[in-house]
Amino acid sequence: MYHVIIGIDEDEEHAKLCAEEVAGMPGEGSEKRVTLIHSFTDNPSGASATQLAPVRAAGDVLDEAGIEYEVTESSGDPAEAIVDAGDEADADLIVIGGRKRSPAGKALFGSVTQTVILNAGRPVMVTGVPESN
């Protein structure tokens, strides 16, 4: 079974796009397993990842494709959580959504995508920016 980790942020369209890319990969839905991970950097209300619209949206796409998935959550640095989840699960692939950012913006503010690409010991797929952005 092909195991994919999808990093889910606060952007519902990114989440759906990531899930759609996994659903469109070769093979039947039953041959794939996905872990959706959301890392809370601030969670004063004590929400669960399963309550978040982006997580639910990705889950809906995976359900439609017949792909088994689970939801995990963490707190702290999202890039570290995604890489750690990939390592712990010995995942075949990590999927994350890209963003349009200037080179200066990446240098000043860092980039979860860039950090995952540089630190993951496995393939990383970066989806594009949804057309509405």
Record the SSE blueprint.
Layout lengths: L1 E6 L4 H12 L8 E9 L12 H12 L3 E8 L2 H12 L3 E5 L5 H7 L2 H8 L4 E4 L6
Parallel strand pairs: 1-2, 1-4, 2-3, 4-5
Helix pairs in contact: 1-2, 3-5
Order of H and E elements: EHEHEHEHHE
| Total strands | 5
Mean pLDDT: 89
Provide the CATH architecture. Answer: 3-Layer(aba) Sandwich
CATH class categorisation: Alpha Beta
Number of domains: 1
Looking at CATH, the homologous superfamily is HUPs
Describe what this molecule looks like in 3D.
The protein is α/β, with parallel strands linked by helices and 133 residues long. Helix content is 38%, strand content 24%. The chain has a 5-stranded parallel beta sheet with strand order 3-2-1-4-5, sandwiched between helices. The mean pLDDT is 89. The chain has a single domain (2-77, 95-127), classed as HUPs (Rossmann fold, 3-Layer(aba) Sandwich), CATH 3.40.50. It starts with a strand and ends in a 6-residue tail after the last strand. It is globular, with a radius of gyration of 14 Å. The chain is built from 5 helices and 5 strands, in the order E-H-E-H-E-H-E-H-H-E. Belongs to the universal stress protein A family. InterPro entries: Rossmann-like_a/b/a_fold, Universal_stress_UspA, UspA.
Summarize the structure.
It comes from Salinigranum rubrum. The chain has 133 residues and is α/β, with parallel strands linked by helices.
Give the tags.
133 residues, alpha/beta, Rossmann fold, 5-stranded parallel sheet, 5 strands, 38% helix, Universal_stress_UspA, Rossmann-like_a/b/a_fold
